From TrEMBL:
This is ABC transmembrane type-1 domain-containing protein. The keyword Transmembrane helix applies. Keywords: Membrane, Transmembrane, Transmembrane helix. It comes from Dreissena polymorpha (Zebra mussel). The chain crosses the membrane at residues 28-50, 70-95, 107-129, 136-156.
Length: 181
């Protein structure tokens, strides 16, 4: 559904990349960021399970699948990106309405402030992206720790079984030696 909503944005990105004559690098950067965000929520393929050397007495619980619905920060990020992409289109329409009003600041200074504000919003978007990547990394580390714990439990069970077998064999050998003498 998200891909259907953002299909016009993808077409705009493609059109911009095909032209290569864009005089607005900030708009091109924002469009490329949106394309990156569209590729981000695609589900990752699940890794193949590692074969265990010994059969376990209890069946292993299956790992929980990653949730497919997008979290709220990603949706807010996409909404903010769409607004930022539409802002250059709406600015020429809004500028004539603001010109007749007395401005406390000159127009170039206002445009400079607008560009600084857009750059700060872009920085905020990048920080949110880093936060989402950090959350994904934490989730992957938790899955790896669970896999390591399951492997350690399996090897501990195998070691306990081997120790019990060796103890029983030693006790049997001691009993045989005792009976022999």
């Amino acid at each position: 559904m998200l891909q259907l909503i953002c299909l016009p944005c993808v077409l705009l990105i493609r059109q911009t990349l095909l032209k290569h004559k864009s005089k607005k690098p900030l708009l091109l950067l924002l469009r490329l960021l949106l394309l990156l965000l569209l590729l981000l929520p695609l589900p990752l393929p699940l890794p193949l399970p590692l074969p265990l050397p010994l059969p376990l007495p209890l069946p292993l619980p299956r790992p929980l699948p990653l949730p497919l619905p997008l979290p709220l920060p990603v949706l807010l990020l996409l909404l903010l990106l769409i607004v930022l992409l539409l802002l250059p289109l709406l600015l020429p329409l809004l500028l004539p309405l603001l010109l007749p009003l007395p401005l406390p600041l000159p127009l170039p200074l206002l445009l400079l402030l607008l560009i600084v504000l857009l750059l700060l919003l872009l920085l905020l978007l990048l920080l949110l992206l880093l936060l989402l990547l950090l959350l994904l990394l934490i989730r992957l580390l938790i899955l790896l720790l669970l896999l390591l714990l399951l492997t350690a439990t399996a090897s501990a069970t195998a070691t306990d079984s081997a120790t019990a077998t060796a103890t029983a064999a030693a006790a049997t050998a001691a009993a045989c030696c005792y009976c022999y003498y």
